[in-house]
Write a structure and sequence with these properties.
GO terms for molecular function: DNA binding; DNA-binding transcription factor activity. With 238 residues, this protein is an alpha+beta fold. It contains 10 helices and 12 strands. It has 2 domains: 138 residues, Jelly Rolls; 74 residues, Arc Repressor Mutant, subunit A (Orthogonal Bundle), CATH 1.10.10.10. Helix 6 packs across helix 9. The chain is globular and about 60 Å long.
Length: 238
């Protein structure tokens, strides 16, 4: 089921990378063409190989982007939440989605039709810089994700994940894990048993994890671990 955007939905959309640098009059044109989708937990938004007909922005809940490897294993490419957009490069090229998307929780998504974005570029060429900026941010995020997987230890990846959940400026925090640990492991490029070992290593930094939350005694110590550039430095932190 789909419906028109509310004022709150428009506010969330304007915070996304797709709209952040667009002038209000141009973003308004796209938002007038957009609609809201509601998905239940486990419902598939699109599958790998489907035509990219829209750019999506998460208004509420969590969406998993993933691919199924030839051996049947699931590779989690990303997990998107409120204010995050996905699908820009494929929609602009009118290409096929390279991943599948599934609701991890009940979700509300803002769907911006690809044809509306392409029509805007034809009638308002000045919007191209803003749209290209959004695509660049998407690619930059992928590069950072690859760097995290290649150059960071499991403990560092988990530390960075937990820091993203902490309130800005907090000295200590108790954060709610937004989805189950199997999905966290997939998102961080780890096996569930590797995630458990990483959580165990973080106990020395005052991190206590239970089924659905993590208590962090010192955010600064966790930041020091996440920012360590070499395993020797990481070992000194731990």
């Amino acid at each position: 089921m789909s419906r028109k955007l509310s004022t709150a939905h428009r506010r969330i959309a304007c915070q996304s990378r797709l709209f952040a640098s667009l002038p209000p009059d141009l973003s308004g044109l796209l938002l007038d063409a957009a609609h809201v989708l509601r998905l239940d937990r486990g419902q598939v938004l699109f599958q790998h190989g489907d035509d990219a007909t829209a750019i999506h922005i998460v208004a509420q809940g969590w969406i998993k982007l993933y691919r199924i490897a030839p051996n049947g294993a699931e590779a989690v490419v990303g997990v998107m939440t409120r204010g995050q957009s996905f699908g820009e490069p494929m929609a602009l090229r009118q290409a096929a989605y390279p991943v599948s998307a599934e609701a991890v929780t009940g979700c509300e998504l803002i769907a911006v039709p690809a044809h509306a974005v392409l029509d805007l570029l034809k009638t308002h060429p000045e919007a191209a810089i803003s749209i290209l900026s959004a695509v660049f941010m998407h690619l930059q995020g992928l590069v950072e994700q690859i760097e995290q997987l290649k150059a960071r230890s499991g403990a560092q990846r988990v530390a960075e994940f937990l820091l993203e959940l902490c309130p800005p400026g907090a000295d200590s925090a108790t954060v709610v894990l937004p989805y189950d640990k199997a999905l966290i492991a997939g998102r961080l490029g780890m096996k569930p048993e590797s995630l458990s070992r990483a959580f165990a290593r973080l106990r020395d930094l005052g991190v206590r994890v239970n089924q659905s939350s993590a208590a962090i005694a010192s955010v600064s110590r966790l930041e020091e671990l996440a920012q360590a550039e070499a395993f020797g430095a990481m070992n000194r932190v731990i």
